């Protein structure tokens, strides 16, 4: 086994292993609630991965504050930027009055929130109390109003104006919560998890890891069905008369259809719109549709290979000796067709990967796979918003998978060429 074949096989094996482990890596509730914005409201919006801090940044992670004693929470702030917000998390199905006050490292005490809480509540978006806190902290009213209305009110607590610019106030912050029930405080930071979050705070690692198994199923099932149909119809078209020509005609039609426009048209027809506004399609109709659109060129090439093989002298001699078409097919034709079909399986897999990506960029996704991630990149304007973490991981992963498939394909073609030369 050559080095290229070993490398390609190792990469494919790693992807398959990761697909098997994905149920362990991802919380099933995250998948079930993927389209519900309220489920993710405790996460930062458009936050890069936590590992960006390794490269010189110092951004606060998202964390639940530890309770030093009943009703008192401590936060050690030593970052370059303040968190996005602080979230009050009451017990489920509870409603009541809550007061949250804070003592800053420079000795100032302010009330951050005072009022009714009936669910997760962001402190920084409480206009009245944050403006009062800003006044006590010496922040001008117009500046404070602009920050609060822009959703950045919590910056008032963690930064001070110094020589015309905002600088962070590092140290230990103590938060005191007055409530009739136990209430949690969660710092909504500026980095999150291994792959960051999207515009709604959804964890990108969920769609990346949980979407891998379905992506691989679509890719390899489509490739298998495509080459199976292509080989079957190509051989049948070469061996038979009118019926074969008729079947081969379907292959020609398939090869002429524009793939991407056809899939954009078929996805809404094959599926339906769910109550959360996403197109929901079973993967098997998609696999069948893709295979019917892709098998045409494979069948034409298989037909050409088969007809070339059948015209050789030793095949004609076998026919003259009374050999049946089935015997000729099994002993001679399949030996020539199978290497080509194997290479086309690998090539078609790479094509399907590219197609899933392209359809995602057109806003067409189906199921819970990497196509959904590419759709998010477009609909959430990830490039415009600088959310490189929504593009880079899946882009690298797809490129690596495609490279592995191409390495395997080239080795198959090389062995096929060598065996043909030996003959």
Please describe what this structure looks like.
The mean pLDDT is 85. The radius of gyration is 30 Å and the shape is elongated. It is α+β, with helices and mostly antiparallel strands. The strands form 4 sheets. It has a 5-stranded antiparallel sheet with strand order 2-3-10-5-6. The chain has 13 helices and 13 strands. The chain has helices at 3-25, 28-32, 127-136, 141-149, 155-158, 204-239, 242-256, 259-270, 283-310, 313-320, 325-361, 370-379, 392-422; strands at 63-64, 66-69, 72-77, 85-89, 96-103, 109-117, 121-122, 159-162, 165-168, 171-178, 184-188, 272-273, 279-280. α1 (3-25) packs across α6. The two termini are 21 Å apart. Belongs to the binding-protein-dependent transport system permease family. Residues 212-409 form the ABC transmembrane type-1 domain. Pfam families: BPD_transp_1. Keywords: Cell membrane, Membrane, Transmembrane, Transmembrane helix, Transport.
Summarize the structure.
Pfam families: BPD_transp_1 (PF00528). It contains 13 helices and 13 strands.
What topology emerges from the helices and strands here?
Elements: H1 3-25, H2 28-32, E1 63-64, E2 66-69, E3 72-77, E4 85-89, E5 96-103, E6 109-117, E7 121-122, H3 127-136, H4 141-149, H5 155-158, E8 159-162, E9 165-168, E10 171-178, E11 184-188, H6 204-239, H7 242-256, H8 259-270, E12 272-273, E13 279-280, H9 283-310, H10 313-320, H11 325-361, H12 370-379, H13 392-422
Antiparallel strand pairs: 1-11, 2-3, 3-10, 4-7, 4-11, 5-6, 5-10, 8-9, 12-13
Helix pairs in contact: 1-6, 1-13, 3-4, 6-7, 6-9, 6-11, 6-12, 7-9, 8-9, 9-11, 11-12, 11-13
């Amino acid at each position: 086994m050559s080095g290229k074949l070993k490398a390609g096989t190792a990469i494919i094996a790693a992807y398959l292993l990761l697909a098997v482990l994905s149920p362990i890596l991802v919380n099933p509730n995250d998948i079930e609630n993927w389209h519900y914005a309220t489920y993710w409201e405790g996460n930062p919006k458009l936050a890069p991965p936590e590992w960006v801090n390794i490269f010189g940044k110092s951004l606060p992670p998202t964390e639940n504050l530890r309770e030093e004693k009943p009703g008192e929470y401590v936060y050690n702030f030593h970052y370059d930027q303040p968190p996005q917000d602080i979230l009050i998390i009451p017990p489920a199905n509870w409603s009541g009055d809550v007061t949250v006050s804070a003592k800053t490292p420079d000795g100032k005490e302010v009330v951050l929130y005072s009022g009714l809480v009936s669910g997760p509540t962001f402190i920084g978006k409480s206009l009245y109390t944050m403006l009062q806190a800003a006044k006590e902290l010496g922040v001008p009213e117009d500046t404070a109003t602009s920050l609060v209305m822009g959703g950045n009110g919590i910056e008032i607590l963690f930064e001070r104006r110094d020589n015309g610019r905002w600088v962070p106030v590092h140290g230990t912050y103590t938060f005191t919560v007055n409530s009739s029930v136990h209430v949690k405080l969660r710092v909504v930071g500026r980095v999150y998890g291994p792959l960051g979050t999207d515009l709604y705070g959804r964890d990108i690692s969920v769609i990346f890891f949980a979407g891998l198994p379905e992506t691989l199923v679509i890719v390899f099932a489509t490739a298998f069905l495509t080459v199976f149909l292509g080989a079957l119809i190509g051989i049948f078209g070469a061996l038979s008369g009118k019926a074969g020509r008729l079947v081969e005609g379907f292959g020609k039609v398939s090869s002429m259809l524009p793939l991407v426009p056809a899939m954009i048209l078929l996805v809404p027809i094959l599926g339906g719109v769910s109550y959360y506004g996403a197109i929901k399609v079973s993967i098997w109709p998609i696999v069948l549709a893709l295979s019917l659109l892709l098998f045409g060129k494979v069948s034409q090439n298989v037909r050409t290979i088969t007809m070339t093989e059948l015209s050789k002298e030793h095949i004609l001699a076998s026919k003259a000796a009374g050999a049946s078409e089935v015997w000729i097919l099994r002993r001679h034709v399949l030996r020539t067709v199978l290497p080509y079909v194997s290479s086309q399986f690998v090539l078609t897999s790479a094509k399907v990967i590219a197609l899933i990506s392209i359809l995602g960029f057109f806003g067409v996704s189906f199921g819970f796979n990497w196509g959904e991630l590419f759709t998010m990149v477009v609909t959430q304007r990830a490039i415009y918003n600088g959310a490189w973490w929504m593009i880079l991981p899946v882009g690298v992963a797809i490129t690596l998978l495609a490279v592995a498939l191409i390495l395997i394909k080239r080795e198959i073609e090389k062995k096929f060429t060598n065996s043909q030369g030996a003959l």
